[in-house]
Specification:
The structure is a homodimer of 130-residue chains.
Chain A: H1 13-25, H2 31-39, H3 47-59, E1 63-68, E2 71-77, E3 85-88, E4 94-96, E5 113-124, H4 126-129
Parallel strand pairs in A: 3-5
Antiparallel strand pairs in A: 1-2, 3-4
Helix pairs in contact in A: 1-2, 2-3
The first copy, chain A, binds a DNA duplex (25 and 25 nucleotides) through helix 3.
Chain lengths: 130, 130
Amino acid sequence: MAKTHTAQPRNTKQKDAMRSAFHLANRPLSPEEVLEAVREEVFGISLATVYRNINAFMEDEWLTTVEIPGQPARYEVAGKEHHHHFQCTACGKLYELEGCTFHGKTKLPRGFLATSHEYFVYGVCADCRS
Amino acid sequence: MAKTHTAQPRNTKQKDAMRSAFHLANRPLSPEEVLEAVREEVFGISLATVYRNINAFMEDEWLTTVEIPGQPARYEVAGKEHHHHFQCTACGKLYELEGCTFHGKTKLPRGFLATSHEYFVYGVCADCRS
DNA sequence: ATCGTTGCAAACTCTTTGCAGGATT
DNA sequence: AATCCTGCAAAGAGTTTGCAACGAT
């Protein structure tokens, strides 16, 4: 027997603060970065809540995951067009790159079929260079 | 006061089996994959030993890390020329791609400096397609 | 006989989950 | 008032480490 209606999400200051944090940052954030950003506004917010809400936002498709090699995932506001990322090796921050400048057709072993790709650029960001 | 001599590494069947596993696989292996491959030869080998020896091999620069977005690292025999990797989304295996076909100069935000890049292709490998 | 190496179990980090109290509608 | 959400603490996954026994030299 099915439930009559689905869960009604509620607005909380924790969620609001997290939404603001993502808008303000304008770059992919790790759970820890979210926690830091949000702590100023919502004292005592727990990391568990950050994770839970990140996952909720992903179910809502308001956030998407940005997985980086060898590091905890970052999350960014969903719906942007295909793009890749830049990571500063000095401060560790992840930045969004415009568009996808990758056009070459990669040579694959015989019988392999490509369906997607990921591309990361590493270097130093403007803040860390100045 | 400095030690008179450095540690003398010893050959063990565990290390030998691990070296063979990497040579035979001819693709980057995760610690779990190494464990599986080696178990047939060395019954009772522990995951801790696999990790310890992987780290030792990396200090010897015989292995290098291959970090993949959102997954445990793989390791491959060091000293190969610049190349990238393909991951099969069906079986999860990682394969080496020949050379680097990436030539485009990526447009970075003002003031950013690029020093390196990573590139991953995802798809289905020949084994999983047949 | 040394002393590097191993297996086991405990410790650690990152992330998820159970639960009881607190907050939103 | 109903029930969603939160904080805390415990539980899981992946990796590292302490320790006593083992084994290569």
